[in-house]
Amino acid sequence: MAATEDATADLRAEDDVERVPGETDMWFFVFFESLVxxxxxCVYLYFRTQDERAFLEAQSALTLPLGILDTIVLLTSxxxxxxxxxxxxxxxxxxxRQLALLTVGLGLAFSALKLVEWVKLIGDGHTFTSSxxxxxxxxxxxxxxxxxxxxxxxxxxxxxxxxxxEKRRQxxxxxxxxxxxxxxxxxxxxxxxxYIVR
Amino acid sequence: xxxxxxxxxxxxWLVLVAITLIYLWIDDSADDSGVLxxxxxxxxxxxxxxLVKFRIILREFMDVRHAPPKLRRLTDLLVIxxxxxxLGTYLVGRAVA
Lengths: 198, 97
What we know:
heterodimer, A: mainly alpha, about 0% strand, B: about 100 residues, 3 helices
């Protein structure tokens, strides 16, 4: 009965209360890292305009449908983690845990797709030093991969929170979710920069 | 139990996927018989669409919609700063080249 009461209260309160999702420190991270990635993109865009033909030629080695699939997988993982937070807020922690595990699965799927792409590119002779474009490609996707790996640790904390009622704190759950969303936020920009920009 | 919140998240996801698929059309229309060509229109569109997605993720998935006004304004400012930086750099770069 307590869980139902919590769920009802949470649902009613959902649209009424203004609150910072998760811990404020994580939002400092979101802003800081967004600006760091923006600076990388600015450098890339500037040097791209100075040697367009070479960048276009190297860019043609990328497979757009694979990039689209990467993006949809990560967007879906953002959706599942957002649903996870909603379910946790409503007191439905078992469902929330399942959604968190689904998010991990989607993250692993993205990692596998990225690995396949890197292996194919390297096998075709496109490496970090083969062209300026590929240097930016491997640097940006590599930096993103580091954030993704940290994201798996964060998701592990999230799953542990949802599993253990003694340790469970909604603020920690939301903080972990905020971190995972930044992995998607940065990919949305990286995808546009590397696969679409002409 | 479906709530309006769940439905809203689903709609946000559908919009984000739709925008992502629009890139396929942009990419297809941008190139010359499969050969990649430079295009200011494509680049500007790509950056703008990416930032629309960026804001949707912030507002809907990251729950900034329900955040205090300060955080809402700061995230909108972040989107503007990123837009100005990226578009400005690109356009200045093209002018200099």
